[in-house]
Amino acid sequence: MVKKLLLSILLLTQIDAENIFERQCVGCHQRLPISLQGMFKRYLLVYSGENNVKAGIIHYLQYPSSDISMMSKLFIDTYGIKHKTLLSPKELTQAVDIYWEKYKVFGKLH
Prior knowledge:
It is built from 6 helices and no strands. By secondary structure, it is an all-alpha fold.
């Protein structure tokens, strides 16, 4: 009984330790042939700045469409369009902020 309780507490602690980006984004993207970093680079090439990249990602996740997707037609035909996010606006902003911090190149080049 005590072991089960300790195991439950440990698992809950690990779940809480993960951030919204890790919980809601990473798992699904691991099954795709392009990495999250690769997608980030595509957004950066199109939108260039932090505010524009974040706004582009948020808009796409709220209103997914092949017209505004960064992915090729072949990718979309194979994997489809992402479903509309179920994250709240606050959670979505947090996830995109974490994504930006993880993959941004600004301030990392020497």
